[in-house]
Amino acid sequence: MDKPFQRKGSESNSHVGRDFEKKIREYFVKQNLPLDSGVTVPIGINGKKSHSFDLGNKDEKVLVECKAHRWTEGGNVPSAKLTVWNEAMFFFYGSPPGYRKFLVVLRDFSARRNETLGEYYVRTYSHLIPADVEVWEYDESEKTGKKIK
Fold first, then answer.
1. What is the CATH number of the domain that holds 93?
2. Residue-range definition of the domain harbouring residue 57
3. Could you tell me which residues are beta bridge partners of residue 52?
4. Helical pair 79-93 and 117-125, crossing angle rounded to 10 deg
5. What CA–CA distance (Å, rounded) separates 3 from 75?
6. What is the pLDDT of residue 13?
């Protein structure tokens, strides 16, 4: 079966996401910040409803959303994917105050654009990123993380 929206070489997009979350969890453990999967907190602007973040730590008051998206094969902006990043910003905006909030994205560099997808997002969507949200890039080959906002 042809799966045009599935990442090449992967079993499924959900496997890509779970594998990325695992790498992010391991990275932050090495930074002395243990994270649990599926941390649920009440979010909302007018009323509250439970939302499960990819990772978090209720004791340390940390919430994490992980996104393993890449530039398109043709080097274009994956605009449909970035709407999911914007959705994460909305969830962070409606989350409880006092939490440290991370959007952790896969580092994917475009030589044509001379920037990573994360840098592009911060540059073009900064007006949607709440002030208390940190945007981080994770380099899979180097196993390193870097705060970019």
1. 3.40.1350
2. 14-147
3. 40
4. 60
5. 19
6. 57
